[in-house]
């Protein structure tokens, strides 16, 4: 699984012109699923992402976690994180997980967030979405469970 995690002051997702999810201070997580990803990868990624200490403390050091600052989470499915741009000008998405697996692990990731005490706002799997965010820092990190194997 891959996640692009951005520390935000605010973020939202619209579907068909209607706000579907919206947060204040917290994490915008763009989430992609690969074909070999598992429930264990999902749990590990959620645990790592939600536990990152990337909010600043009183000494302006990144020492505080999402929970420490009472932050929120917005999760958006993003199969294009598995886009391969090595050849030509049109990305290939053959490395993205099949839709059935990707949707199941996306939903499981939302469940993992809830289990860790963060009621996630979210988009809709497979929908055309408009995502807006105000990056804080900016701080943006890429997490890939393949790097942990």
Q: Tell me, briefly, the overall form.
A: globular
| Cα distance spanning the termini | 12 Å
| Overall mean pLDDT | 96
Percent of residues in beta strands: 35-45%
Helicity, as a percent range:
10-25%
Give the structural class. Answer: alpha/beta
SS elements, strand count: 8
Given as residue ranges, the uncertain stretches (5+ residues, pLDDT < 50) are none
Question: Would you kindly provide a brief summary of this structure?
Answer:
Helix content is 20%, strand content 39%. With 149 residues, it is of the alpha/beta class. The relative contact order is 0.30.
Question: What can you see in these coordinates?
Answer:
With 149 residues, the protein is an alpha/beta fold. The chain is 20% helix and 39% strand. It has 2 helices and 8 strands. The strands form 2 sheets. Strands 1, 2, 3, 6, 7 and 8 form a 6-stranded mixed beta sheet that branches. It has a two-stranded antiparallel sheet with strand order 4-5. Helix 1 crosses helix 2. The longest helix is centred in the last third of the chain and has 17 residues, at 99-115. The chain starts with a strand and ends in a 5-residue tail after the last strand. The model has no long low-confidence stretch (mean pLDDT 96).
Outline the secondary-structure elements.
Elements: E1 2-15, E2 18-23, E3 26-32, H1 39-51, E4 53-56, E5 62-65, E6 72-77, H2 99-115, E7 121-122, E8 130-144
Parallel strand pairs: 3-6, 6-7
Antiparallel strand pairs: 1-2, 1-3, 1-8, 4-5
